[in-house]
């Protein structure tokens, strides 16, 4: 409940972009966030771990990554995208409602069991061992949020 209160106070200042995918399920977002967490090492995200978890890299017609300087992954039947760029594994998933945002936040909290968490300018920061997970909401409005974004880094890589 405390995490929900922190999230509500951070909604107005969030600035993540909206996705054009259909809303993702809470379970899919939490599972994708755990995939990012598992894939992020002291060397940054290991794309082989994302691929092993069933995420498929988006490639252009020449077979090159569509993201300059990084890798964009999608998973069949999952309305989310994972970008591996530099030291960050970034998950973006559209959500249908603020209830889904709260449930996703709670699900991530339950799955990660963070050592500590705190409200930061852009959202809520979970810290677990050497990993940081930054959870924030993109384009919130009175009617519905556009997307949640979870950025995972490993502090040993800095």
UniProtKB/TrEMBL annotation:
<keyword id="KW-0732">Signal</keyword>
<protein>
    <submittedName>
        <fullName>Uncharacterized protein</fullName>
    </submittedName>
</protein>
<feature type="signal peptide">
    <location>
        <begin position="1"/>
        <end position="18"/>
    </location>
</feature>
